[in-house]
Amino acid sequence: MRVLGLDYGSKTVGVALSDPSCLIAQSKETILRKEENKLRRTLARIEELITEHQVDRIVLGLPCNMDGTCGQRVQKTMEFKQMLERRSGVEVILWDERLTTVAADEILAESGIRREKRKEYVDAVAASIILQEYLDSLKD
Q1: What is the pLDDT of residue 108?
Q2: Alpha carbons 62 and 4: distance in angstroms, whole number
Q3: Which of 101, 100, 99, 87 is nearest to 58 (CA)?
């Protein structure tokens, strides 16, 4: 069993993948798109990853506000979740992603990656944090 972690943003989707034993999340890639509503290629790439890695579950970050309320990004994420489930047939689990991008940026800074280069990696690292939190919850 493998789990795919996604950090869905307005122009990017960070991707992470678990190991087969579902213990460790690893950053995989960042899928870029030119416009927010252009999702055909993004969904096609996710489907390729599902097939290639035999993924049977997806964990999708849910961008709630710090006070726990839902904003406009939550609605777009819910719509993306429905598209993913419809197209892939794979279960999609929503996971609170508050502060994951901040944590990812800190990890990259501590790793010595320059600020200009961090943008290339921050979404995939955030996806790995989302996925790792989910995997850790399975151990309880």
Answers
A1: 66
A2: 15
A3: 87
Full domain range(s) for residue 58: 2-138
Q: In this structure, which amino acid lies at residue 18?
A: S
- Residue-wise pLDDT tens digits, 104-115: 777 767 777 777
Evaluate whether 19 touches 1 at the Cβ level (below 8 Å): no
CA atoms in the 13 A half-sphere facing the CB of 28: 23
- Non-local (6+) Cβ contacts of 72 within 8 A are none
Q: At residue 74, what is the residue type?
A: V
- Whole-Å CA distances, 97 to 45, 74, 94, 117, 128: 22, 11, 9, 22, 11
- Confidence bin at 65 (pLDDT 50/70/90): low
| Total of domains in the chain | 1
pTM higher than the cut 0.85: yes
Q: What is the CATH number of the domain that holds 117?
A: 3.30.420.140
Q: Report residue 26's pLDDT band, with 50, 70 and 90 as the boundaries.
A: very high
